[in-house]
Each structure stands twice: as C-alpha cells, then as structure tokens.
Amino acid sequence: MNFEPFLLAPIKDHDKIDVYQKHGGYTALRKALKEMSPEQVVTEVVNSGLRGRGGAGFPTGRKWQFLAKGTGKPIYLCVNADESEPGTFKDRELMLLHPHSVIEGTIITSYAIGCHHAFIYIRGEFAQETRQLERAISEANEKGYLGENILGSGFDLKITIYRGGGAYICGEETALMTSLEGGKGYPRVKPPFPAVAGLYGSPTIINNVETLSNVPHIVNKGAEWFKSIGTAKSTGSKIFCVSGHVNKPGNYELPMGVSLRELLYEHAGGIRNDANLKAVIPGGSSVPILPADKIDVNMDFESLAEAGSMLGSAGVIVLDDNTCIVHAAMVISRFYRHESCGQCTPCRQGTTWMYRVLERIEHGKGKPEDLDLLLDICDNIEGNTICPLGDAAVPSVRTSIKQFRDEYEYHIKNKKCLVTLGKRFE
Amino acid sequence: MADLIKLTIDGREIEVEPGTLILEAAKKLGIEIPTFCYDNRLKSVGACRMCLVEVEKSPKLVASCATPVGPGMVVKTNSEKVIVARRGVLEFLLINHPLDCPTCDKGGECPLQNLTIKYGPAISRYGEDKIRFQDDLNMKFDDIRLGPEIWMNKNRCIICYKCIRIARDLAGGTDLGIFQRNAMAKVDIPSELMYINEFSGNTVEYCPVGALMSDSFRYKIRNWLLKSESSVSWVCPDGANITVQHNQGKIWRHYSRQNDNVEMGFLSDKDRYSFDITSHPDRILQPLGKNSGLLEKITYDDAIARMVHRIREEKPENWGLLLDTTLTNEEAYCASEYFGRNFPGSAIGIISELDIGNDIPASSLGLAVPMTELEKSDLFIVIGCDIAAEHPILSLRLKKALKNGSSVYFIDSRKMYLGRFEVNNIIAEYGKEDLTLNKIADLKNGRVNNLPDTTINKLNTDLGKAKNIHILGGYDLLSSPIRGRYYNAVRKLTESLNAKLSLLTTETNYLGIRTVGQPNVSFVKLIEKIENGEIKTLFIAGGDPVNVFPDRERITKALAKLDYLIYWGAFRNASTEHAALIYPSLLPTENAGSYLNIERRLQLLKKPYQHVRLVTSLIKLLTDIKIETDDDLLYYSPEEVFENISLNISEFKGLKYNVSEGAILPYSGISKLSNDSIMETAPAQYPFALTFGRSVYYGASGITEKSSTLKKLIPPQKLVIHSNVAGHAGYETGQRILLETANGEKGQFELVASSDIEPGILFLFGYSQDNPPNKFMAGYNTPVYAKISKV
Description:
The structure holds two protein chains of two kinds.
Chain A: H1 17-22, H2 27-35, H3 38-48, H4 60-65, E1 75-81, H5 90-97, H6 99-113, E2 115-122, H7 127-142, E3 158-163, H8 173-180, E4 204-208, H9 209-227, E5 237-244, E6 250-255, H10 260-267, E7 277-281, E8 290-291, H11 301-306, E9 315-320, H12 325-339, H13 345-362, H14 370-381, H15 388-403, H16 405-414
Parallel strand pairs in A: 1-2, 1-4, 2-3, 5-9
Antiparallel strand pairs in A: 5-6, 7-8, 7-9
Helix pairs in contact in A: 2-6, 2-9, 3-6, 3-9, 5-6, 5-7, 6-9, 12-13, 12-15, 13-14, 13-15, 14-15, 15-16
Chain B: E1 5-9, E2 12-16, H1 22-28, E3 52-55, E4 62-63, E5 74-76, H2 80-95, H3 111-119, E6 143-145, E7 150-153, H4 162-170, E8 177-179, E9 186-188, H5 200-206, E10 212-214, E11 227-232, E12 241-247, E13 250-256, H6 269-273, E14 288-291, E15 294-297, H7 300-313, E16 319-324, H8 329-342, E17 347-351, H9 371-374, E18 379-383, H10 387-390, H11 392-403, E19 407-412, E20 424-427, H12 433-443, H13 454-465, E21 469-473, H14 475-478, H15 483-497, E22 500-503, H16 510-516, H17 523-531, E23 537-541, H18 545-548, H19 552-561, E24 564-569, E25 581-584, E26 593-596, E27 602-605, H20 618-628, H21 638-648, E28 688-692, H22 708-713, E29 718-722, H23 723-729, E30 736-741, E31 746-754, E32 761-765, E33 785-790
Parallel strand pairs in B: 1-5, 16-17, 16-23, 18-19, 18-21, 19-20, 21-22, 23-24, 24-25, 28-32, 29-31
Antiparallel strand pairs in B: 1-2, 3-4, 3-5, 6-7, 7-10, 8-9, 11-12, 12-13, 14-15, 14-25, 26-27, 28-33, 29-32, 30-31, 30-33
C-alpha cells in the first residue's frame, strides 16, 4: 500500500530542531496559535476520530471536552511517557528519534485545553530518552516555542519533566498523578475523575506520547486527511511494536486496520528460523492471546475486540511453536505480581497466588485442580480492583488455559513440558 | 438546601442528601454492608474491596464505601455476584493471614473472624507457602515493637489503612506508612523512629485484625472474659466517654464508647492507658491509723471511731477540707455539705494547680459552645494554651476544622504544635503578653498594613475573612504572673473581634467541684490558715495536694504543721507523709457518679464491680461517720445526693440523675477582672523567667505516675533555652546544666537549645520524681526567676 509513515518519519537527525523545522516542524504550532482558537483545535481533533494510543483507545478530543470549566483552578496536561506495558516500545522510539513531535504535540494540546504548565511523566529507566526530551525542550525554548508569549500569541507554557522510579503502576493515570505529586504511586478511587479533580486537585488531562504526536499532523493536514487513513472507527495510523520470534522485530507505523498476517509476514519478515506460529499477543501482555489460526484479523480496536482480544498498546508479541505456553504464562504473571502496588486486596494477593501456582506447574509440581483454581482466581480478581492492573493480570492466564489446556494438562501430568520435552525447566 | 437523591437498594427506596455514600444510604435502611477499611470518621480509601455491591448499568461491581449515590441508582447488596465477590475477597485476605487465632489478642472481637464466618469460604484452597515477615530472625515470634506501647505483627496486617489514617488525619503525624509494594506491602514505621503519639492507642482499637497490639493488654486476658461498664475518663477535663472492661474485680482495659458529641470514639492515650492505676500494687486496701507514731493497718470500725473522736475533740472552725478535682459531683457535694452543716467556720478548698478565684465564676469557665459547635469556627486564636497537651480531645476538633480550611493561631511565650498540621505561632514576651494582644486588637481596623511580622500580616488577612472566631485561653494564661492584665487584654480582643471566648481549665472535674463543692477559700488561703494555726485538722478528699500546689516546699511544711491530717485516697504519696488516719478510696472508674467536662456537660460514671468492703466511696464513708454521730442526713447512693444538688445548686436546677445525662450547664459569659498588676523585672543574678510545660500524659493530681503504662510514654524531662542565648553563653543541646531559682531551688537537667521559645525564658518540660515542676514554683501567678550554669 502507499502509506507513508508520518509519526516515524525516516528522516535523519529528526531530533534536531533545524532538521525538524526544515521538514515542516512547528508549522502546525504556528497555524494553531495564529489561525485557530483553542476550541477550533479541539473540534478538529474530535472530528479526526483520534483515539488514545496508550491502550484504552478513548476518543481523545472527547476526553478534552470533559475538562471541568470555571473551577478557578489551573488546568494541567500530563504526558504519559511511562511506557511499561510488556511488548511496547513505540513511545521510546518517538522520544528518542522524534522528540520534537512530542513537544509540538504537547504545546498544541496545552493551547487547546488551556494548560500553562504541562508535565511529562517519563519512565525512570528511559535515561537517554529523558535527555533527548530535555534537549528538545531547551531547543524549543530558544526558538520561542515555549515560555511566555509563544510566537507573540499571548499563550504561556512551561514543560516540566518528571522521572518515575520504576513502577508499571505509575502508567495508570491516577497513580501517575499521585506519583507526580510526590506520593507513592497508588491509583485513586474514581470518582472524582482527573478531568474534574486530578493533579493537585485541578482539572487534568493525561495523554499518551503517541497520541500527542498525532496532533501536529491533524492540525496541519486536517481531520479529513486523518480519517482517510485507517478504518471508520479507528482512524489514522498506529505504531505496531512487533517483538518475539520474528525475523525483523521493531516498530512499524501502518494504517489502522492492517491485517495481522500482513504485519507479521510482510513487514516483520515472518517467523524466525522457519518455525511455525503458535500464538500472538496483539496488544501487550495485558490482552487475551490469539491462537495461530486467528491471525487473519485486522489490527484495529473493533476487529480485535470482535476476535476476542484487544488492540491495547499494539505491542505484538509473537510466540512460535517452540514456546512452552506454561512458561510464558508464568513469566507474564510474574510481571504483574511484581508490579502490583499492593493497595487493594484482590490484585495484591491474587497476582502472587497465580504466580505461585504457575511456578509450581512449570517446575513439575502441578496438581489437576490447579487449572480450575487459576480460572477461579482470575474471576475473583477481574472487576473487583481499584485500577485495571488487576484486570490486566487476568487475560494471559485465562486465555492461555482456555486455548492450550492440553499443554497445561500434559505439563501437570507428566511433570515436564510438552514442547521442549524436559529441556526447559530446571 | 440541594434536592435529595432517590435510589433503590435491595428493592427498597430511599432519599438521601447528595454526597452520601452508598454504604451509608444502605445503613439508613438497616442494611449492613461488610467492610474492613471503612470508618465514617476517616477518609474513605476503598482498599479492602469487601463492600462491593452490584449497581445496575455498571459493568463492574462498585465499592459502596467510596462511591456517592446517584439519582435513580438501583443497588443490590446480596446478589449472587456480590456473594461470590465477598467470598473471593475473604479468601484472598486469608491466603497470607497466619493461623494465629489461638494466641492472637484480637480473637473474639476480630472483624476478620466474624466476616469470614458470615461470608467467607470454610476451607482454604491455598497450597503454597505463606510469606513470613520476620524483622529479627532471632525472635521466636514475629511481633515487633513499634514504640513503647504498640506492638506489631506484620503477618496479620490486611492493609486496611485504618492505623495510617488515624496517625495521619487524627494525630497529624506521618508516623505510620506502608513500606514495600505488592504482596510484601505492610504497615511499619521508619527504622530510626518510634511510634509515640497521644492517639496511638486508637490504632490498636480500630485495627480489624490482631496486627497492632497494646503492650499493656497483650497476652494478658481473653476479651470474652471481660465485662463492660460505661464510664468517663478521669484523667482529662475533656471527658472522653470510655468503656471500662473488667474481670474479677480488676480493670483490664479502657475501650471507647463512641460519643459523637465529645470524643467521637477516639480516646487519647492518657484516657486509655490510665486503666492500670486501679490495679497498681501500691493501692491502699485497708484503713491506716497512727499507733505510737507509726501508721498501721486498723479495722474499719476503729477508723470510723477515730474520726468520730476527732470530731468531738476539734473545734468546728479549726477544720479544713480539700476537695480533689477527680471527685464526682456527688462526693464533692456530700463532703462540702457535711462540713458546711457540721463545722461552721471551717475552710473548704479545691486542690487545683490554678487559682482562678471568685472573680471568675464557674459558669464563665470552660467552653462557651459545645465541641460540635467549636469545630465550625473558621479562625481559632489559642492564647496561653498548649491545647494538644492540655485538651487532646479538643485538639481533635481543631484539627478537623483545620482540614476544613480553618486557621489556627497560637499566642504564647513559646511555639505550639498540633501534630504536623499547619498552624501559626506568634511568640509574645513573657510577662508582657498583653502588649501583643493589644497590637492584634488594633489590627481589626485594617489600617495597619505590611507589618514586619509576616504572621501578624497573615492574621490580619484572616481576621478580615473570618466569620466565626473563637478565642481559647489555657494554663499559661490562667497561671500568668500578670493574670489580670493578660486576661483583660484577652477580653478586650474578644470584644473587638466579636469573637467567642473560652477559658479552659485543666483538671478533670474542676468545673463540677467548683459548682457543687462550694469552696469558701482558695487553696492558697487554706494553706495560709494552716500556717497561722487557724486550721488544725485537715481532711484531704482524694488526690495528692503536695504534687499540685505551686510551691512544694510551702505545702509540705504546712501539712507537717497540722495537728491531725485525715486522708481519703487510693495511694500513699507525698501528701500522706504526716497523715494520722487514712481511708482507702474507690477510684473514679470503680465508682458511680457524675462529672462535668470542659463543656460543662453532665456525664455519668457507672460502677463496674463491687470492690472489697473496706474500700469505699466518699459518700459511703461520710454516711458511716454520720451514723456514728447521729446525723440524720444520710445518703446511700449518688442518685440521692444528686437530688439535693439539683435542689440546692442553681446551675443544676431541674436536672435529674439519669435523664439529664449529656445536658450542658449554662454558660454565663465573661466578666472583667480587677487586678491589673504588671510583672516585676527579673533580678540581675537570675535573668530568666522559668516557665513550665507538660506532656499530655501528666495531670490529674499527679497520680498518673501510678500508671506503669503511662510512665513508659512520658517523655524525658528537659530544659529549653533559646538558641541565640545558648550560642552566646556557650551552651549546646544535650549538655547537662544546673538550674537555680531565685527562691532557692536547684535541679540538674539536660539542655535543649531551640528557637521555639521567647529569648527571655527558660522552659521546663515534663515531669520527674526528683524534679517535679512545683518544686521550682513560687506560688500561684508568681514569676519564677532562674539562672543556669554548667555542671
């Protein structure tokens, strides 16, 4: 197809402001400040159908419209750069190689929602990416794209970068705000919602890095252009992060709705070592697993939901048939156990319990009743927690058991792995 | 008034105020939704997930303790989904909870046990190892000490955040927190600190499992063996309502007895841990009389006979009576009436650390409004009062108001704190506090701007905005050497601000004793009468006057001068050294009667058990004496005494003993004081004025030192000097120095250099048996001048 990536534009030194400007950078900012009112920017984004790229897929423009008005409190924008979903590495590339698009998107969004102090909450491990953003901010400051009276428009904006301390939970929007305020990254009970009372009790919008990177393009080329890419309900492009047992793992920016088969075999080079595909987790480890016979699905929000999975963050993890699914489920559940914040009972105790059972099965000490027990634990966690981390721990376990139950049963009965025939566990 | 919201819970309709939580609305219908982490006095966290209910149109179950009602909501609290969720949550809580029930303090009053029986799984499916939290691998048990009184067993903690919210929101500290994350998360304190706080006992009471334990109760007795009786705290004038829990004639614990008008269910540690005073081994259990100069055990009949003999021998006008402030109203009235009728011309005084005098009547003392009104003020000016130490329950109300946006200003010769809540301090010069107050009264004109002092500037702004100002005065004001001037300046400020004024006395039932005890002399006048021989026989009704009178040497000498000293009390102490006759007394929590608290609210103490025959109430003792002396006005119960009180004491008119519980006696407003003297300047060799503070654990006639629990909590005694002065003179914190007062007393103390006090004073904080504060005092409202030197 004739799609030209615009988020991951293949421009050398795109992180330098001169190169960025030469290729049309900051023209959207000029257009927004000089020719459009904040309301018009919001309307354009609403009309474009842009949906959040962090995993939830909520319509971005509509979220901005939820902001409480007239409270007398300042409005804040938090850029969620705490990319920690296993299998996802798109924001990283954007911040590393295209930091100015993130900055420009932040400035335009701040203008649209009336924010004068934006925060970038970046994962602590992203040291290099933080440096890139810091450099980009100072470059933008020099050119007058940040600070007071930007481009003579009367609009002021300051951006503060805040580094996280190594917690996946801080990618959850309310935990992010609590961490930014200096507290422990515990999610908050909703209501109140961030758009009403968020950071420091003020109306706050939290947007993902990739979401904001789309905003300058929508302003420049218009909502209709954006809608011409992708599908009717999932407009625009998406950066798909393909990892696992493929020949060419990496970030691929493609229109929404591209088929998973095409993504894996045409773009990512197919399964490595000529192996067969076993399963794909299409949206990061928090979404249901797709078995190999289901990969003729289109990669957009609606189609994947219909197929029984989710687009999520589009972190496509590919498993070939040399993978022991029990081991994979154990590793994934270990992640959620480690990252659970401990605030509410089901996630705190349930994730540990699930990991322990899976670990036992993996090491040859499984019992036949363990599988139904795991499914029951999943049912008891899902929906009963304060934040979605508990819900996120469930799909990998549940769908792996539902789809590969024979493999689990073999593992339990024979105390060894069906796939690697005893080679894998210690 | 906004419209009420209509919703349906379990098929029943109800209308409630907007903002009501679903759980509270269900409670109004009589539906109990189980929870661990919810408490209506603490901020909701929604963490335990036990209260999940089904709400139509909501995709997930909803935490009813953290979700306000919405119009037209349809809630089901007992559907299949809810039952399954509850069982799931309990199963999750139990997978890492140790099977400590046989040895855990909480067993029998444990919400986790109770809810598991009601809603939980009968069998555990957990087959893995439990995580064990062992701080010290050498310990056999996993209990660790968080502080001198609080023990913690982390294995049992279910992370409900109640203790953290109590420590943070109630006490205003950040002592407790959750350390670590995921399943390793548990409540703990930072490693170098200890958990000492005046509300720490509440964390033990409200912990839903046995994770937090009190050292004084741990492993001592099973709670189902305890019987309960209602009473009132006898060590604090705020009158916290307590439940006395006893077994076999011994009080094992004080528990709360939620009274939303007074302490709201939160006892201060002083109220809670004073229970062990009643079972102290030094308790007098049999009358003592002097035989050939030595005090020996005598029979009760002998003791009564000796008293009768003395009554026949002594002239009526040579008798004196001292009433302790922990007496119930009935006992005080009974004694005072007895003396008034039988010993005309005798002296009746109150054992008090403050000499308030007849120029301020009892009905002008205490809170001008009930506590529930007090917390509605938007500006508090607290003058000469360490309210956190003197009135911990009142300080709760101030903290509540602070959270709602009110401001608090302290004015004294030193800085005051309310935990870590943000308060403002204006330091005034000791002996010249009236000048600071007059300056503030002038502010009301608003013409004074940009004052050099930022705090006074802030006060100026707040005064302009405040609609409901309350001024509180306490110990430092009432004991000040310029009391008249100081008080008149406070009154002038009150009038100019159109504020309310409350003078807060510091002793348990002072207001009650003042009203019904009808003293005819002040404590110091009574001592004078002993000194000049007018009083030869003295009856001390309870307490420890030697520890209270602000000149220890003087009162000790006076008591030694008496011909005959009779003591009715619970312990031998400094006051009983020269006693000729001692009667063992009931302590208030073993007695029945009434108290007036700082609001002048009538509260009842009920008798938990019958003590040994020889230990009596004052009413019974006087009745037995009256029988021997053919006095026919006999009382057999507090109710009978109260009937007479309500007939003869105007403030009690119309009240009935049981029915009028909770009634607040009228407040008669503030009056002018005539005395206007200024403080004399310090002599050259003794350049500092010595001021006295207290810990929250010291009070109630000095017998709180008989509580081995409270003794653990009393902080060490220290002497504070201003940092600049220390710097000039070459002193530093931690140094041991010698304090000498102009009236000839000496003591050695550890020094603290701080800028929290006014440079002209030394501040002696705390109590020790070697250096009780009243050793250095020179009388009521008299300045004490002192100097320090290196040891």
